[in-house]
């Protein structure tokens, strides 16, 4: 294969992947009527790549916010467990299935081989209360059914 044909094929592959990226991006990222477009009215490659980077950064920011909230909730849950044990002499809500060591994002990324848990979870992620898709409550107890004095 000549260098020219290899380069043309490579460029075609790149263009195809950029168009694929475009299909995954929210269309509201391209609502700017003043932005230059291709002949068929679609955003040009530069716009697509810029929007993709911006969207990924926004998604990462959202993940960071959710991680902070999740950590705050886990700390609060541990505090409530201590109060519960002091008040009732035992824990009423079973939280033994909750992984207090890692956030759900770390667990999910580890399951696909990314992040600090990649080596540990990629081979065998196992069940996680964070990806429970059933309607069952974690630990088998529905916190809404407990007496209101259980939770201050």
Automatic annotation (TrEMBL):
Positions of the UniProt region annotated as Disordered: 120-152
Lineage top rank: taxon: Eukaryota
InterPro entries membership: HLH_DNA-bd_sf (IPR036638)
Example of a GO MF term: protein dimerization activity
UniProt name for this protein: Retrograde regulation protein 1
């Amino acid at each position: 294969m000549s260098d020219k044909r290899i380069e043309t094929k490579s460029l075609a592959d790149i263009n195809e992947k950029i168009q694929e990226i475009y299909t995954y991006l929210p269309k509201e990222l391209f609502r700017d009527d003043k932005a230059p477009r291709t002949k068929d009215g679609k955003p040009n490659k530069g716009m697509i790549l810029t929007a993709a980077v911006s969207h990924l950064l926004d998604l990462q920011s959202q993940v960071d916010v959710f991680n902070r909230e999740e950590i705050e909730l886990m700390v609060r849950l541990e505090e409530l467990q201590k109060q519960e044990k002091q008040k009732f002499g035992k824990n009423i809500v079973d939280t033994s299935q909750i992984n207090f060591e890692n956030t759900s994002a770390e667990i999910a990324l580890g399951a696909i081989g990314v992040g600090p848990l990649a080596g540990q979870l990629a081979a065998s992620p196992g069940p996680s209360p964070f990806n429970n898709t059933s309607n069952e409550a974690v630990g088998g107890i529905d916190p809404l059914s407990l007496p209101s004095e259980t939770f201050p």
